[in-house]
Amino acid sequence: xxxxxxxxxxxxxxxxxxxxMGGGTFLxxxxxxxxxxxxxxxQAINLISFIPMAVISLIVHFKNKLIDKRGVLxxxxxxxxxxxxxxxxxxxxxxxxxxxxxGGFLILLAIFQLIIFIKGIKDKSxxxxxxxx
Length: 133
Fold this sequence. Notes:
Layout: H1 2-18, H2 24-34, H3 39-63, H4 72-92, H5 95-132
Helix pairs in contact: 1-2, 1-3, 2-3
């Protein structure tokens, strides 16, 4: 039965990823907090679940001619190097510290998103004020 709940977590994470919100933001805490999956394992599951989503996204973007093929290598090479370096670094860090780092990242992300949201509201009200004058 536990396997079914893991599938549900994956679907929730995938659903949020499909909406552009970052599935790992939800998947990792769901696995870690509710199912006591060790932090390293939860992050590995998230990375593995990202592969089919990335492949489908690439196929859709290629079909819609939204990918600049000339610039792909400039993204792939640093991306692969960053993934390898990040995975190696994550392996060296203990699970509890990794959990705190990830939690800190989520807090910073939330603050960043809040700032962007507030700035958008201010810009919109400023636009409305200029239109009314």
